Amino acid sequence: MANYSHAADNILQNLSPLTAFLKLTSLGFIIGVSVVGNLLISILLVKDKTLHRAPYYFLLDLCCSDILRSAICFPFVFNSVKNGSTWTYGTLTCKVIAFLGVLSCFHTAFIISAKCSVCHYI
Questions:
Q1: Cβ neighbours, 10 Å, residue 106
Q2: What exactly does this protein do (predicted)?
């Protein structure tokens, strides 16, 4: 009896070159826009003294978190897609990258809820 994950691996590895190109282009665009956009917003928040208030500190924290996620997690996904959707980094790296991705999502949800409760009182 074949495992479903092994059956899915064969489908992902046999993608056309055009599909792989489109996926890699999209991921590269997402990485670039995410890092550059969040970096520009972070620079604006640090340089503009009128934005040195609690809500904007939360926004700066979200920008830094998103930059780290984009710079650390997405390149592994990019290389995985480039290698035919196979993970070549080992089990530990897979668990660490998955943990960082989930941590980033929970961090974002926590910061947004904290921002809403703090800004309500300001």
A1: 10
A2: Orphan receptor.
